[in-house]
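Propose amino acids for all 536 sites.
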């Protein structure tokens, strides 16, 4: 007999064996979602309002816990690392102490740690690795607390809704924890339950963060570039929306709709339940598969791991530059790879949303990279808010030497490399550069995909892959791109010189695997470590 596809695959990229069908127009909890999202974001200015005095005892509590962590590191880990000449031991010790402090300080700082854990390539590997423990190893709420929240929000006893409900959570994170359960009607589900006091705690912590952030401007070059108040604002906008699971369920359907519109069926979104979604409880379809770093298990099952990461990259780019909606928190804990090779994408609390002007700017930024037009890229970054509106782009190109031959960092001395980094940061700050909020989410996702390439496809040829992705978008969206950005990719060949410049290699280099790129990065790190040892 012919197989009949579920009807809701027309409106979303869901599994082929539905526990129920999604009918977006019939979902009561989804009504007025846009109004609810705007109202939620309207709370942010009040949470971040500037106060003349520190907001209560919370600042003292935070300072105490972080001070203890720093003191323990300075008196123990740092000295031990110096005696043994092992700087990585110092970083590992500090990272562990900070992780414990964040965990003690509660949901807001745990969430901040989770965001830092996604910054592989931006932050020290010891910090990233340690803070990954904050993703799903946070002490859970008691089962009685979980029962109370679920019953209050669903308006029924646990037994009236579920035939079974696991007492131990599958994972516990900053905002919520998730439990496996089975509905009375027999469907296996996952139940996401919000921590009962998290909303009050978040409001208190945001007040403290917003009071401290302005004092960091200009103190540390990297933090100045990132713009600490903007980081706190991004954090606030992200976390307040995560406090309403109806918005998360709405995000699930929007991202699923994008995947369906692009015919990207290699990524699957769990179906939210038609009725069992409230502000603090989200019941969804239970999906399973290989963890994202289980390369051996996937390959033994015959899954092409290169195709897995390729599908994730394409779907992410299509969502951002073609539809203006993308999952804003990609990391290994949010992904499963199913036995058929499709990626099950979870946790939609953070979703990037672009209006048309910013989506066009993203499109120009990527198009400028494809045809090696640095001025187009800088103009796009300016339109995204990374540079002031009156920035002289020609001056930036000249000052940063973007139009000059690239220097291979592996052939530079540590002093030369450090001096160049400092010079670039100083010049960017002089131009008023900063990271706009949506660009931060985008870059964070790109960093995850960068790490996924290292894990799942280390022998992929990066130059061939860039060309392949560019050809995909040219063939599928060439006419649309030409109309929206004024440059027809069908008439412009892919120019890899800008990509070579990003990697720090000359134009004579025609291929490079991700494994070779990792070796280059490792060489640079070793040379910088040796340089620090010699200076000490």
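Proposal:
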């Amino acid at each position: 007999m012919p197989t009949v596809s579920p009807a809701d695959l027309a409106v979303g990229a869901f599994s082929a064996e539905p526990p129920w069908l999604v009918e977006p127009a019939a979902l009561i909890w989804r009504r007025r979602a846009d109004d609810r999202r705007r109202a939620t974001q309207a709370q942010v200015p009040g949470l971040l309002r500037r106060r003349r005095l520190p907001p209560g005892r919370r600042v003292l509590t935070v300072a105490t816990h972080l001070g203890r962590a720093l003191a323990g590191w300075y008196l123990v880990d740092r000295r031990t690392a110096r005696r043994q000449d092992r700087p990585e031991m110092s970083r590992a010790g500090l990272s562990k102490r900070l992780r414990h402090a964040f965990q003690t300080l509660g949901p807001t700082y745990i969430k901040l740690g989770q965001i830092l854990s996604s910054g592989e390539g931006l932050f020290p590997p010891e910090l990233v690795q340690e803070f990954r423990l904050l993703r799903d190893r946070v002490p859970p709420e008691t089962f009685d607390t979980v029962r109370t929240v679920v019953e209050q929000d669903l308006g029924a006893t646990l037994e009236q809704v579920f035939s079974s409900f696991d007492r131990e959570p599958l994972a516990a994170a900053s905002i919520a924890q998730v439990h496996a359960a089975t509905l009375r009607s027999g469907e296996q589900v996952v139940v996401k339950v919000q921590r009962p006091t998290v909303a009050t705690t978040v409001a208190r912590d945001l007040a403290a963060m917003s009071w401290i952030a302005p004092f960091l401007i200009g103190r540390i070059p990297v933090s100045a570039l990132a713009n600490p108040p903007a980081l706190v604002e991004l954090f606030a906008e992200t976390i307040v929306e995560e406090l309403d699971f109806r918005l998360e369920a709405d995000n699930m359907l929007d991202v699923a709709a994008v995947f369906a519109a692009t015919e990207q069926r290699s990524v699957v979104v769990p179906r939210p339940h038609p009725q069992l979604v409230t502000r603090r409880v989200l019941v969804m379809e239970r999906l399973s598969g290989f963890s994202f770093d289980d390369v051996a298990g996937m390959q033994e099952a015959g899954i092409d791991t290169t195709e897995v990461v390729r599908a994730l990259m394409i779907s992410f780019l299509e969502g951002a530059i073609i539809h203006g909606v993308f999952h804003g928190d990609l990391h290994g804990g949010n992904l499963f790879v199913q036995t058929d090779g499709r990626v099950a994408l979870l946790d939609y609390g953070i979703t990037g949303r672009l209006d048309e002007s910013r989506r066009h700017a993203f499109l120009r930024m990527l198009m400028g990279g494809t045809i090696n037009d640095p001025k187009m890229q800088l103009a796009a970054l300016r339109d995204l808010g990374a540079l002031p509106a009156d920035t002289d782009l020609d001056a930036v190109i000249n000052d940063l030497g973007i139009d000059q031959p690239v220097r291979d960092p592996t052939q530079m001395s540590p002093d030369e490399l450090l001096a160049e980094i400092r010079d670039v940061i100083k010049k960017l700050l002089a131009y008023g550069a900063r990271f706009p909020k949506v660009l931060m989410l985008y870059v964070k996702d790109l960093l995850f995909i960068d790490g996924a390439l290292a894990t799942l496809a280390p022998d992929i040829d990066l130059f061939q892959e860039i060309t392949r992705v560019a050809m995909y978008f040219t063939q599928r969206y060439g006419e649309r791109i030409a109309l929206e950005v004024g440059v027809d990719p069908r008439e412009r060949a892919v120019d890899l010189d800008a990509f070579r410049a990003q990697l720090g290699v000359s134009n004579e280099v025609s291929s490079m695997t991700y494994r070779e790129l990792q070796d280059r990065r490792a060489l640079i790190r070793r040379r910088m470590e040796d340089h620090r040892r010699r200076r000490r």
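The two ends are 75 Å apart (CA to CA). The chain is about 55% helix and 10% strand.
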